[in-house]
């Protein structure tokens, strides 16, 4: 398995896609039930292959990832050949960016000396999708990029 198995909820959401996937493997509903009971290791492999296919599709479309913690904001833009990063670090420890109040403070104090800005670029390794997946596994969320674009205009 290259990425991670989908959760039960994700499999439920993608139920029809999974049925279609099994159909392309010429596995009927009855055969799937039989496979789960009599050859669970083979059924597990099918779940893993399907999970990787879904992840490949998702990762191929990712443009923006955000990772927000109490004191830091990491905004990633996944370009074709590299990832761009805009990061903000708070010097004030009593502000929590994960709360509405903390985010409001950030908006009102954007040019304050209490905020450090960082800007960086990094080329992908040999596996672009794996690099993006790692950011997600580390707590990043796929977004539409409004925050990245906002801060990109400010610092450039």
TrEMBL record:
It holds the Pfam family DUF6495. InterPro entries: DUF6495. This is Histidyl-tRNA synthetase. It comes from Winogradskyella immobilis.
